[in-house]
Amino acid sequence: MMRYVVVFLLSLATYLVFVGSVTLYDIVTGIAVSSVAATVFGRILVRNPRKLEVRRFVELVRYLATFIATEIRAHLELAKIVLSPNVSKSIRPGIVRVRYDLESDYGVTLLANSITNTPGTLVVDLDEEERALYVHWINVRTLEPEEIRDIVSRSFEEHARKIFD
């Protein structure tokens, strides 16, 4: 039962955020849509209901704070690049390999989506055997693998591990 409740609540929250208002109509429609989503996807999305713990939800909130802060920094950095008088000298685009150390598919998906949703980076490939993401980075600052990981993915990976592994 818990798996359905979690999918319902997350679906409802997502629905209300994307709708952008909280009228009676939006709440009723959100409840209907979320009920269908929970019924159809509850068993698929939550593989192990025993892992549904409060600490994971707290970590999810921490992840969101990290993600928002990273987004703001990335937007400012990109604005600086775009507004510079000579854009071609302000950037060094390239594709870098970023290793990861996550066990669950959900964790890898969260990591890849977090990197892709951060302005200036885009995951273009995933190599499961090497446990690496290939990321197009608009401004490659280093070629050292650990430094790349620190800059591009480390904080997202730590949160993904605590949430899903």
In brief, what are we looking at here?
With 165 residues, this protein is mainly alpha-helical. It is built from seven helices and three strands, in the order ααααβαββαα.
Q: What's the number of helices?
A: 7
Morphology: globular
**Biggest β-sheet description:** 3 strands, antiparallel
Q: End-to-end distance, in Å?
A: 22 Å
Strand order of the largest sheet: 1-3-2
- Low-confidence segments, given as residue ranges, are none
Q: What pattern of helices and strands is seen along the backbone?
A: HHHHEHEEHH
Strand content: 5-15%
User: Helix/strand-derived class?
Assistant: mainly alpha
Task: Give the number of domains.
Answer: 2
Mean pLDDT reading = 88
Helix content: 55-70%
| Computed Rg | 19 Å
How many DSSP-defined strands? 3
Task: Explain the overall architecture.
The structure is a single chain. This protein is mainly alpha-helical. 64% of the residues lie in helices and 12% in strands. The protein has two domains: 2-51, no CATH class; 54-164, no CATH class. It is built from seven helices and three strands; from the N terminus they run H-H-H-H-E-H-E-E-H-H. It has a three-stranded antiparallel beta sheet with strand order 1-3-2. A hairpin with a 4-residue loop joins strand 2 (121-127) and strand 3 (132-137). The chain starts with a helix and ends with a helix.
What is the secondary structure topology, with strand pairs?
Blueprint: H1 2-19, H2 24-45, H3 54-83, H4 87-90, E1 94-99, H5 105-117, E2 121-127, E3 132-137, H6 145-152, H7 154-164
Antiparallel strand pairs: 1-3, 2-3
Helix pairs in contact: 1-2, 3-7, 5-7
